[in-house]
């Protein structure tokens, strides 16, 4: 399933715009933590400092969701130490550091078009304020249209946004982290929940060394007014790398030392006041805290081992080896009965991935469970809420499976021809799966699908949603779920190469464009007519850290959405402004012409805006009326390069800490800003007004009318705790509350009709006679829709009696989708039936090897039918299903093979020109299965392909020739190459040896090659014959023997080759020396071996062409007989043993290669003219006989290497 997307944790939002990271950490978390980067350091060419948010355990309050498809983000996500040189990634769950900054290391600075020492910025059209700065106007001068106005607090949509020119001052204090001026990273933890403790870990990350060289730990007990340095409490020489916080008990802190120095943990139970140090025998890469038990932790090591601790890291126990990174999960409370159950993806011994579950303190082989039968694709396990997802690829296509509430897995059903090539699970909220699927014809877009409750049947929600790649290669989907309003999403859809922003209020059933504001920032009318012109928003943090893209919403402020974007025909990266909606996306107002980061204070009652700029600033803007008017406040007396902003966690956020530097050489400056002074009092009931949630006037959203209360804009009172909706009542169901069911498509008339590929009756295929099933009407109610009555009865699926059906659509496949199986191993066959009474049918399975089984009903085969084949070959598996109404049958041809281990090409070393030679591929083991043989001759670029392991061929030119055979068996291809010498004539002599050689003969190819060289050297030394005339080959088997070839070598000077008489003379010399026992060699000290002659044969040039006349042939035969008589006399006269030359010549057609390999009669020699090329083999209609039964049996005296030799 690739990497799986998820929602960002509650309240998290970070944007790096114009070189500044701003972190929104307000009103959402029980704790806050961030890793900050010194932006001012960039101007001096120093290594960049990263900003990273690491929230506490997310809650539902203040939740805001984006959808990076980078990794799963859930409440049980494993968290790991950040790579300071890596790009920013999505946040993980509480208490876990994540990956570092998006800024490039120093070696990447000074790119073309950007000043040295600064990161490149996106080129865009400058706003009027930017143009004024270029002319020398101060950076923080009021923009146009900021004149004071005394309009009504509830400003109409057509009025311009008001900016108050007078400067007000906020209550603030500053503190410098003295001595840390060189530190370029900081991690911050703010406990919140009435706790005044803030912890800051600053680090010096050396980008050249790739490690942390210094660190300091700071602690504040007065909300950040002052800080105490704690280096002496953790060890002056200790270098800290990461800070963790227990998500269920913020008083428990864990510090991890730098792995380059030591592997230790420092644990605190009093919010970081004191620490105890524990050494580790492994290196932690990531941690996963339990969602309920504060002392339970899973630790993932760098060597892919998973450890567990029930004592908050004080003791560890090895849980499992070979665990996939980020593929381990705690059991989800409510779904898994055992809270100590761990879900993980582990590698098997043979390298496959498998989904297993086990107890955190007892994960032995006996106690492990394997919920999914068989293997899964690597890095595909996801456990999220009530769902478990895995992926299995077969036949080149990925298949996705889901388990709902830990029940049996079912294959996820997308529309038949979606043909996904990538899928990301985005959300599993409210018992429904939201998934992004990239289909076969998509490259940079995804389709959004939404499921039924079980996560099995998916219907299309939106096509062609824009996607992009993050800095770490992760997929980013342009989809945003608005916090506080159930079923409301924003998405950027690509239409005709233009990206447009759409909004839905009913979970994707209906989408529409955003209406642009009626006026701009100055009150001038905006001429933008739908659908040709609309408002477009950036829905994610851009992969480029210097481009904008920001959107924010909160559960505690359900009507307010703040985002950056533009007005026009499509989404653009230029002319970006800031927009706000106070009525949940129905209307929008422009609030800034430049990019700002907007934070929520006091449950959204106050908006805080800080401009993105590379210059130092000391002002920010506050709005008490949902962005209609803004007041300028100073938060520091000295301009500050802002690196990040962190708000106090909790629902009543009124304290904010600004992190920055006065200059690139200064220490970290921490400015504590207290907003309590801007409020007159706490709000009373009369300070609020009701507000009706609606969509273009329709008050029924997700089947209910909801009324919220809002603070009146003219009131500056403090809201305090968020109370939620004032009232909610269900609506009467209409057609708009129902989406099309699986297999149905909405037509232009609004009706849901079956797709061309869908058979509505197929839903009853798993139904037995006498039972009932839900017969779809073509509609299904949108999940979480609360409507009642109305058309609900009409559109809801009706129970219907299961019809009695004859079996139809029977299929049998292997569990992995392959048509092959291994000999001696279990193969699982799956029986599938499109329709039929599954409870009342008989199933008969014939495996084709003489074994057959029967089953009483189809349900008994749900886990597959297992069988073991003892022999190789092609087996015809037949399945027949029968009930009282009919029968159906199907056939599967299964190829059973065993692994091919070795191939040996059996070929003579020497042959005569124009004479047929036999080549045989000898296999080990001999019974492998269906094979294809590919033959390569010399430098030919076109191979010959056969289904037989033996061929015959001739050579018409003298010289050395190479022959290569490749044997293809399934996914395995092995080959062997041999060289053969071709001459017009040569002689050969069989050699034997003294018996002591057999004692040292291991009968392996390497030994035979070495002994051949030794024998040849002994012959040359004893006879002084040139080594070019001698070729020796030791034969396999015992007793040891060899073949000596006497060759007519032609020298480099072009002298004539040796004639038959010359070869005869050389033979006589060799035989003479051999008979006198003058040829011997020393095998090892004290072991000498004598070489003897056994038999001599000659191969003269013989012309077999039909052009010879009859008289010539008679004359030739006469000469042969005379020569034979002379030779007999010569033999008896000279008494040379074993010479029978002319008798051999009489049987020229019998001069075939004599091979110790005995071929079956069904395997004839194939002349070269009958061999097929690759194209011919494909076009040839193959015989249906079991070709898997081809075998090559070797004689008992032969070995795996069985060469053959010419004996003429």
TrEMBL record:
The record's section on SUPFAM superfamilies has:
Oligoxyloglucan reducing end-specific cellobiohydrolase, PKD domain
Ranges that cross the membrane: 1112-1130
Give residue spans, biased composition: Low complexity. 86-118
Q: Which SMART domains match?
A: VPS10
Output compositional bias ranges, type Basic residues.
119-135
Family the UniProt entry places it in: Belongs to the VPS10-related sortilin family. SORCS subfamily.
**Protein name in UniProt:** VPS10 domain-containing receptor SorCS1
